Amino acid sequence: MQMELFQAIANMSGANFAQHLVNGISLGSLYALIAIGYTMVYGILLMINFAHGDIVMMACYFAFFGITIFHIPWYITFVGVIIATALLGAIIERTAYRPLRDAPKNSVLISAIGASFLLENLANYLFSGRPMRFPNIPLLSQNISFGSVQIQAISFVIPVITILSLVVLLHIVNHTKIGMAMRAVSKDYEIARVMGVNIDNVISTTFIIGSALAAIGAFMWGVKYPGITPMLGVMPGLKCFIAAVIGGIGNIKGAVIGGFILGLGEIMIVAFFPQLSGYRDAFAFILLIIILFYKPTGLLGEKITEKV
């Protein structure tokens, strides 16, 4: 394997490496955007929103119908998808999670899995299981030439959008009243409630922000990977959850770092070892096992002391 790696490096030109690097950063940025939704919900509720990947899938369908059926310009559709997906996240929180706020964690977990299956089957019923193609947006899908290298414009747009989204989110969390309430709830749920924090509003806002970021990621995912099916969100959802765990679930910066590690790792494995391209998805799960074995709390996760 070591000799094959050296051979692959020797055979790869600088242009090819640059193309793989850009693609890896682009994919990692998508994982990071979606992983933030997982880590925000876990940081406050200590639960995994298993429907998050399916929210990404629904956002892709919203964009598809907005552009192709209603012929709304893509930039207006983009804003509309963010609003519609944020509303969907709020509805899921209100119907599937809020009634179980004081129930055992297992009940909330089952409800989250049920919400995921509901969205998948609802999409299959409403939109059929036939694969659809995300509408072409020439401005984003055109290739930009750098000598002999051809790179899609969206591959440059995605990291920029991710960084801007992260900056805005960190500002909200660290410098606004609702952000202060989120941090208080994440530290001690019961004390925050006693101190007068409106828990329901904080949790709803968390779901809205996480779903809005998922919508941004879904729109860009659709441009880069145009196929849409009711099961679209399953594998990206799993991988983004893994990215959140790698970075330290509950830590926003950790989710972003985990996303970049996962995206770059996937692309580079295929670049250096083309014969392993069929095992590309397995890389995420292998990396998860390694991280859990050596650092169970993730790269930036806080060490948790068990209460006696």
Description of the molecule:
This protein is mainly alpha-helical and 308 residues long. The chain has helices spanning 2-11, 14-45, 52-68, 74-97, 105-127, 138-141, 153-175, 177-187, 189-194, 199-224, 234-247, 252-272, 280-294; strands at 132-133, 143-146, 149-152, 227-228. The protein has a single domain, classed as ABC transporter involved in vitamin B12 uptake, BtuC (Orthogonal Bundle), CATH 1.10.3470. The chain has 13 helices and four strands. The strands form two sheets. It has a two-stranded antiparallel ribbon. Helix 11 packs parallel to helix 13 (280-294). The N and C termini lie far apart (48 Å).
Helix content: over 70%
Q: Reading side by side through the largest sheet, how are the strands ordered?
A: 1-4
Please work out how many helical segments DSSP would assign: 13
Question: What's the structural domain tally?
Answer: 1
Number of DSSP-assigned strands: 4
Determine the strand fraction and express it as a percent band: under 5%
> H/E element string?
HHHHHEHEEHHHHEHHH
Task: Enter the CATH topology name.
Answer: ABC transporter involved in vitamin B12 uptake, BtuC
What is the mean pLDDT? 87
Radius of gyration of CA atoms, rounded to a whole number: 20 Å
Question: Low-confidence parts lasting 5 or more residues at pLDDT below 50?
Answer: none
> Which overall shape is indicated by the principal axes computed on the Cα atoms?
globular
The secondary structure category is mainly alpha
Distance between the termini: 48 Å
Name of the CATH class: Mainly Alpha
Please outline the major beta sheet.
Answer: 2 strands, antiparallel
| Level-2 CATH architecture | Orthogonal Bundle
